[in-house]
## 1
Amino acid sequence: MRSSVETRRTASAGIACAALLVALALGCSGRLPGSGSDAHRPKNVLLLVGDTLRSNRLSCYGYPRPTSPNIDRLASRGTLYRRNYSQACWTLPSMVSMMTGVSIVDEIKALPSDAPTLGQALRDAGFETAGFIANGVLGQASGFGRGYDVYVDANGADAVTLSGHFTRWHEERVARTAAGGKAAPFFAWVQFIDPHHPYEPDAAHDVFHEPRLDEERVADRLRAAYDEAAAKSPGRPIPAIEDSIRKASQDSNLYDGEVLAVDDGVGRILAELERSGDLANTLVILCADHGEMLYEHRQQPLIVDMIVEKEGGLPDGVLDLFGRGHRPWYYDDLWNTPLILAGPGMPAGVVEDELTANLDIGATILDALGLPMRAGMEGRSLWGGRDPGRDRVFAYGHQSNAVVEASRKKLVLYPRRFFQLPEEAPAPVMLLDLAADPREDVDLAGGLPAERDRLLGEIESWRARTPKLRPPVISDEQHQRLKKLGYVEGNESPPR
């Protein structure tokens, strides 16, 4: 017997197929038929992006700590997607993809000037558009402000400050409307920066001080690698192993505090919308550009060697052998990002296991508003709770490619230089089975060559069929912002 969820998924799949047939019958106009009448459509859209926000550090995704009470309430009145993936392992390509609806298959450090964006599409459709951005690499110098009536480049602002920018804008809008002014619907994008390294929550959010929940597992891995770290740092004494274990736990706790700060900002924004009466007719989307590593898995050898060369050893000792932050990794801690949709047209209190992608966000917004899809957009609408019918998701970033399938098989393809391999050597790959190995500890690439080669072929086919965006020449300001956040390597020169 099917569960009610399974029955609804089957119905959603039928709706999606019917919608496709209608689109074909209309001559492939690109318009996505809505899942309901205009009376059930949202008037406004609010896109909340937690920069570097791990889904598995949110309570509504099963994390035992109370890091996200406001986000949990949002999830309870909407639909939560457990198997959502971003399109890159760092901010710029991920957000270029989210805002254009197309895949990124090459390095890119700003929004191409000829790439149509979601903000432009909605402003052209008559929406009042506003952006409130705390990540400096998405500031005006990056091109992301294109299409916005108001664009607040609040570089480095904490979540409470950023939510204040939104609240003041919204209060002015409400007052203007009450005085008989323009009452256009709005699209607002808010991008928090708080969970990004360095982790520095203020006193109100720095409330987690007990050992990290996976401390035993992380500690065992650090102890096993301690002698290797000491050998790589012969001229510089490394911290004692117990100090490193404490530091790994402290960083994890501080990260949780930053997640709580984002939740606070989300709560303030939602409270403002509820106070004004706008929340009931606003589609709210909460997502992330990517997640974060907190010493769960090893670094690539090149990154370790770069630290040794720059510092004359390993200043953080054994911790320098393990991944912190977001570099060329596609473990689920970093790649499996939160996605919650709440508001008109979305089922409440539902948890979905279909494979979804941040690419689907733009398509969902346009469909919910009854607007046509732009030519070339790859996303699939989730509005109404429909099943997007995805069998795999691809990603590219930091010269690394990845694919994850509905079967829970995952393959990551790295450049040879990350593992200090000669050009004639086979490219390094990692094959994982998330169903059998949810912690992603066992690389199956050597033992399952047929499966490895099949997924490599999927990546090659994806790259071959995906049009490449024209990388823009970045400004000196954008170069400096990228460098400050660690996205530009030391040997890269500023643009000329």
## 2
Amino acid sequence: MGLTTATSIAQSSLAAISAEAAVLSRNIAGVNSTGTYSEKTPNLETTVDGGVQLVSISRAQNQALFDSVLSATSASATQSALSGGLTTLQGTVGDPGSNTSPADQLSNFIDALQSFETTPSDQALASGVVTAAGNLVTTLNTAASTVQQVREQADAGMASSVATINNLLSQFQSVNSQIVQGTATGGDVTDLEDTRDTILTQLSQQVGISTTSGPNNSMSIYTDSGVTLFQSGIASSVTFQPTSTYTAGTTGNAVYIDGVAVTGSSAVMPIQSGTLAGLATLRDSTTVTYQNQLDQIANGLISATAETFNSGGGTITAPGLFTYTGATGMPTSATGLAGLIEVNPAVDPNQGGNPDLVRDGINTNFNTGNDASYSTQLQNLLTSLQANQTFSASGGIESSGSLSSYTQASVGWLEAQQQNVSNESSYQSTLLTSTTSALSNATGVNLDNEMSKMLDLEQSYSSSAQLMTAINSMFTSLITAVTAINGSAG
């Protein structure tokens, strides 16, 4: 081997060691990265003259584990979105035994009515019935208002999620384009691929996704329901028109991806997971079902306490103790009644009413003898309140039973929803932690390994440096010898 060849080999070795050290430094710095960082590996090959050179840099990958992380991220985000809304709704019933739920207040009202029925001449007990009725109405009004607030917040959250999705797709389009161009020119795109994975992870928090890779290192993204989010280098348009104010019966707008509805009853390919899916479920299903239950309770109260009497030669049924805002007769629909129900002003002393009318009759005088011990109307009220009723199936619970049992079932339904979401949230959180840890172990940086590689590089560098020193010494000796020969010849 000639000195020139030896020099070339030593120089290529030093250059390769320098390149490996640069990659090593990137790996060590990547440990503190807040986004995705996969371990980078320098790929070397032997040159024709026996040296080495860096030809490419690759990164550690495990697509199966990464897909699992994306799926777990979406599922966990779904439960988080549901949990936030359900926690707020749970406040309408309070903790068990807190005496703040509609069921508790209905029980208190019936107890007050029973006490008054026992001593119908006691005006304090009459006032107690009106007060208990007012507390029950306030509980229903507050619960209905809370439901609509949760729906409004969910709608606003959906708008924010859609904006985030569009922003992430825009970022993805830019990074994906750089990766395709870099791959075509043989550049190092591993850091860009990490950035792309970070964007995908953030995107999966908003909506469940799946991905496919193309031959040019491009990537396509689809929702978990199969709708295209990104393909052929172009991001789809995700659109949503928010609804700022909700009342019972309001239907929120759908989210569209390139004109395809992915949320709401009109969705042909509804998304299954992610924050957006969780908020849509909360807005369009969970809260609507609970609102229907509250409305059925209010409708049941108005029906059970209605008064039927003769007037003008005909029989009339009109709201009695419980009525609703703007009432001109019995309600024709239960929709929104929980927010409209009120105590009849005729019996409310705060509005100039007379509590004794609960005993005697509000729309007509059943107590024709003006008997202070008259209790027939009170007995009729109690019998009607405790009788079985038929409830709409839209409440998602029993369709027949007493008002008390239905109200208790409503409280139980809400608590069950909260518990189910809490359990699922814990499971998905654990799953996300385990899959993220597994991906990190498979593709992340191990500092111990990197430090070991650093020692190996130091030894290789030392050996190459010694070789260069030896070659330099040989060149010096050669030059000295040649100079001496030329001097003798002269």
## 3
Amino acid sequence: MSDTHSDALVFFGITGDLAYKKIFPALHSMVRRGTLKIPVIGVARDDFTLDQLKARARASINEHGGGVDPVAIKALDELLHYVKGEYSDAKTFEALHTALDGANRPAYYLAIPPLLFGSVVEHLSKSDCADGARVIVEKPFGHDLRSAQELNRILLNAFPEPDIFRIDHYLGKRPVHNMIYFRFANTMLESFWNRTHVDSVQITMAENFGVQGRGAFYDQTGTIRDVMQNHLFQVLANLAMEPPVRTDSESLRDEKVKVLRAIPPLKPQDVVRGQFEGYLKEPGVAPTSQIETFAAFRLEINNWRWQGVPFFIRAGKSLPVTCTELVVRLRTPPGVFPQRSSAANHVRFRISPDTTVAIGLTVMDENETGAGQGAELQVSRHPGPNEMDAYERVLGDALNGDRALFAREDYVEEAWRIVDPILMQNALPAPIQYRAGTWGVTSEAVTPPGGWVDPVVD
């Protein structure tokens, strides 16, 4: 293990829902690959014994991780420890200090509500647990710009920015990271990847399910905060960023921040919101809630490469399919032929459920009328059985000190700056109702030239 690798992982909130659905399967997979060999110390309020925690880990892996590997689960059992206590109690952190047993570079994973961050970080600092340590923070990174700045202030009081890892698990998905690789490892895109040749860009993140029993959480969050200003802005940055001078984490993150800095704050006319019929009947949802379950934006990137090219982003629940896809429409060539096909030239990236890179062309139609017809050249792949999960990738990178897949302080605050004006109370009209299984709502101002391309999933 290198000097930069963390020598212990402390998980605040280890008995919670995130740990059960995502983290235990990720830890199990890391052990199986041989990338996790350090103590894992769980901290939570629940009156668990260590044996009960191990049993919960097994149940989690069986339900969400594809089943237990006998060798890996035995090794994980030996790494697990448990500290019970309140996050505001100094005695909890005394017990944690003892459990760390001299670890010099622990990593603290705060999978707890943000309102508890201040107390935990303060106690870590007072108990001498923060020196030389890293802190891994689960989203949301605030509720708006002001709260994000306050959260960053709390974290920076105890940890330097290079030791703060703000997890957006979406960046750990292989296809999202592959967008950067595909763009800069191939020369063919660069010749037309600019305002001269690109007509518009659209990004769709569709889910064919509702809030799945998370009504109380979702009714305090909504689509814009839940996925658009974080997940989809990251996808947008990968799509629009300039080539980094190096592939180190800071060079990559510098270019992403530059993209956001070039985006003006959203105005009400740039946004449309919807709410699926039946949302108000979900448990935990206020009967008069005006939280959106669907939203669409129109954005501008005012820099040399993209000025004048409209970017459209939409995301929503209870839509026809579950799919995340990007379509870059190219400008129409001069009218050499008397009739033109309606199928515009384009580049299409699909992030999920499969990975697809496709180039849309116009070819001679079957009857040779000159109207033409659309065709795609595409490469697709489905995730393999041993493919690394997003949480496994980002946790492994955090323990190694690799910051490339994590949001930096300035990035987080720039993302909030863009959406903050429309999140203010009464800044937008009430969301428009839409039927489950339809493509949400739209307006002329927030519709790409030529219309939205609705993803089709086989």
## 4
Amino acid sequence: MTTWELHGYELANCNCDTGCPCQFMSLPTKGTCEAAVAFIIEKGHFGEVDLSGLKFAQVFKWPGAVHEGNGTMQTIVDEGTTPEQMAAIEKIATGEDTDEMATFWWVYSAMCPNKLQTLKKPVDIKMDFEARTGTANVADVFETEWTPLVNPVSGAEHRARINLPHGFEYRVAEVAKATTKTHGEIVLEGNQDSHAHFCEIHMSNSGVLEAA
């Protein structure tokens, strides 16, 4: 097994109501699970391959809950990614060289027997973590805009977090709203003003590192 470690940020948008039932061991709001996710690697490596500064994205779609399987997924790496870096990200993002059940990538990959070809496209991600705002534009695949939660009475920004002490994706996530428009092979149909989160990711072959 090749040793790897990543530190960076994740911006995610799924089709469920704010809070995402999966985080609380419940079934999806609309019966299906669809998500677009963007990643910024600030620092990382896969063996001797440096992954620092890279960006990539993924699209997932399941006909039911994630654990029921039969999902479809696709990974997209930024156009500046080298062949060696691309191969490394593909392995990490599909759960290879990872302890069983250790990361959300391992789980999502296991639940997605339908894996589309990895693409190399311009991936532009902008994020203000504290403000809970961001955008991701993945050429010919998807575009997402993240915004803070807003109090429906006062119109003031509202801040909420999800804390998962034993999570396989993060320890703490900032909750937001987002809308995703898709243009690629995987069409997301319910991601309008739906659940979103920002989280710091710090993980390795064995899962989330406590320094996160």
